Amino acid sequence: MDPDIWPLVILGIGVATVLGLIMVMKVNAFIALISAAMLVSLLAPGALGEKISRVAAAFGATAGGIGIVIALAAVIGKCMLDSGAADRIVRAFLRLLGEKQAPVALMGSGFVLAIPVFFDTVFYLLVPLARSLHRKTGKEYLKYILAIGAGGAITHTLVPPTPGPLLMAETLGIDVGWMIMFGLVAALPAAVGGVVFATLADRLMPTPMRSIGNMPDPKPLEDSELPPLVWALAPVLLPVILISSSTILNLRADAEHAALVRADQLRDFDAWRATLVDEGESPTPGTALLQHNAISPAVRDLVGADRQLTVEEREQVIAEVNRALADKNLFAEESLTGVQLSELAASLLAARGPRMRQAVAERMNRAVLESAYPGLIEPHVWDTPLRQAADVSNIFGDANFALLLSTVIAIVMLAIQRGMTRTQLAEVAEVSLMSGGVIILITAAGGAFGAMLQAAQVGPAIENMFSQSIEETAGASTAGLSFLVLGFGIAAVLKVAQGSSTVAMIVGSAMIAAIVQDMQLAYHPVYLATSIGAGSLVGSWMNDSGFWIFAKMGGLTEAEALKSWTVMLVFLGLISFAMSLLMAAVLPLAPTA
User: Fold this and answer.
1) Same-domain pairing of 194 and 289
2) Integer angstrom CA distances of residue 422 from 81, 271, 403, 411
3) H-helix or E-strand spanning residue 204
4) What's CA 435's distance to the chain center, in Å?
5) Which of 73, 135, 178, 156 is CA-nearest to residue 407?
6) Number of domains in the chain
7) Please, are residues 446 and 66 in contact by the beta-carbon 8 Å criterion?
């Protein structure tokens, strides 16, 4: 079979296996995903004895990246609900905006709470408030519950630490802080648009509030029973602040480009040029550098010129050398033969991968040049004051540590507010971790499935099949916005087919990562993630648990939910996708991988 066709056959078999097991056979999502991963691995190239073990390795790698965060987020969410912190946030929104802006308050509450708390829990929490508001006003019931759904659904699909966005960041090599910041930017206009849609829907199809089962509406807590607002917000805002601060400091430190070559760091520029020329065509760091596509023929001529170069010519050579240093694949293994690499160069080369940041790639390549030409290039200073500050922030801004601090605050708040013993607190944590454990298993299995799609060479096959289209939209080496459209479309199709936004994000991001893994995008890959997240909103119907949560907890019929909830999520998805396209075109940012 054609080598470009077989990977696509494997892709079809893998996706059909996931959808068939989940939809037709009603198999648990974890078992379906891990089964599909093993099947794809068996069909993919590789040593026969390693085809199953590499699935387990990929599963472990994914779980290692997201497991701690998801587990801690589950504990935080449970503690916030039981302590009344979540209720305090909702009431603060209502007091701030007033009763007339209650839908905005409910949307804002859902928007904030769905960052650390799963959507179903957020909806369970806020629906009683919507029912209470309707009893007070006698109108706009559908508007209230749609506003809750809009706020909760959009951050559930775009902002970590919810599992889907978190795993997309892991799969596409995106810093969690970037995912949080730009996920929020893409989500906010969509959430506001959700309130507008809720207003129109309530006018077009006013829906009565019906009783839900035989259970009476829960009695709300008194204000005196709730924690102060600052404490209530702390578990939500602390990790966002710490992670975002770390990201900003790292961006500023990376912007120093401390590893790039400066003219005063070349001890003997002409001697270095002569060395490069004398190396001829043999594979060395020097020849790899000169043959890189960032080096123009004019600069190659300058390097080989038998004369003194002017200051302007030297600056031109150094500028193009620095452009080449940004390529993490600048030095192939054969070009390093015989070079006595420093410990720094060796360790960075060993860690080289598609997720390496540009500044780190520059440091790695500079370390290689320093090792190859020790008497001609001075060692660079990496640990600038700003870099040292960024290194410290990386401890507190690590998502795992930030969520741990947030968890401690949430548990202490629960203990103080409800007077719980250590045994009772342990029970709360255990219940939370049991629910979080299921999510970890599903997302890690999805990561393993995505890794096996990459092992099957799905990306190169699709790239070869559509190479002409890629060249037309992307030019010689830069991918265009068509990949954002592709990511949105794949996620939407998967969402309609199997119902889970999380699975759609997992599989969709894995497929896109396999396609673009060796490409240099003209925009930050975070926009790929927001496009996929936007697509995963489209197509919520009867195979989606969120559909049934909205319908049953809201007291709506299936037809009413299809006309309101399903249509609203299409609206949200299109707005957040439009924001992704706009940001990629207007604010592309420097790629990090």
Assistant:
1) no
2) 18, 71, 20, 10
3) helix 176-204
4) 22
5) 73
6) 2
7) no
- The tens digit of pLDDT for each residue in 44-62 reads 999 999 999 999 999 998 8
Residue 484 lies in a domain: no
Rounded to the nearest 10 degrees, the angle between the axes of helix 399-418 and helix 422-455 is 150
- Buried-state track 93-114, b at ≥16 Cβ within 10 A, e below 16: bbeeeeeeebbbbbbbbbbbbb
**Main-chain dihedrals φ then ψ at residue 377, nearest 5 degrees:** -120, 125
> SS3 for 103?
helix
For residues 298 and 430, membership in a common domain is answered with no
* pLDDT over 60 (residue 217): no
**Contacts with 8 (C-beta within 8 Å, 6 or more apart), sequence order:** 458, 461, 462, 465
Tokens of 33: 């995903």
Residue 66 located in a structural domain:
no
Q: How confident is the model at residue 216 (pLDDT cuts 50, 70, 90)?
A: low
User: Six-digit token pair at 75?
Assistant: 């504990």
Question: 547-570, pLDDT tens digit by residue?
Answer: 888 888 788 888 899 899 999 999
Query: pTM score, two decimals?
Result: 0.73
For residue 243, pLDDT over 90 is answered with no
Q: In the 8-state DSSP scheme, what is residue 377?
A: B
Q: What is the DSSP secondary-structure string of 109-155? A: HHHHHTTTS-HHHHHHHHHHHHHHHHHHHSS-HHHHHHHHHHHHHHH
Inter-CA distances, 414 with 230, 339, 421, 458, 459, Å: 14, 59, 10, 48, 48
The answer to the question of residue 506 being in a domain is no
> Other CB atoms closer than 10 Å to residue 51's CB: what's the count?
18
User: Does 90 reside within a domain?
Assistant: yes
- In sequence order, what are the beta bridge partners of 266? 377
Residue 219's pLDDT band (boundaries 50, 70, 90)? Answer: low
410 and 346 inside one domain: no
Mark whether 170 and 295 lie in a shared domain: no
| Sign of the Cα pseudo-torsion (341, 518, 174, 255, in order) | positive
Calpha distance 338→331 (Å, rounded): 13
Which ranges constitute the DSSP H helices of 44-84?
A: 53-83
What DSSP letter does each residue of 330-363 carry, written as one string?
SS-GGGGTT----HHHHHHHHT--TT--HHHHHH
Gyration radius from the chain CA atoms:
27
Write phi, then psi, for 478 (nearest 5 degrees).
-120, 125
Residues 277 and 372 grouped into a single domain: yes
Residues 283 and 336 in one domain: yes
**Measured between alpha carbons, how far is 268 from 280 in angstroms, rounded to an integer?**
20
Structure tokens at 352: 């080289």
Boundary residue ending a domain (373, 407, 439):
439
Query: What is the DSSP-derived secondary structure letter of residue 227?
Result: P
SS3 for 208?
A: coil
> What is the rounded CA–CA span in Å between residue 327 and residue 63?
29
Measured CA to CA, the distance from residue 79 to residue 72 in angstroms comes to: 11
- Spatial separation of the C-alpha atoms in residues 281 and 271, rounded to whole Å: 18
Say yes or no: 367 and 235 in one domain: no
- 377 and 410 part of one domain: no
| Structural domain harbouring 301 | 263-383
Q: How far apart are CA 449 and CA 498, in angstroms?
A: 16
Q: CA-CA distance, 410 to 2, in Å (whole number)?
A: 56
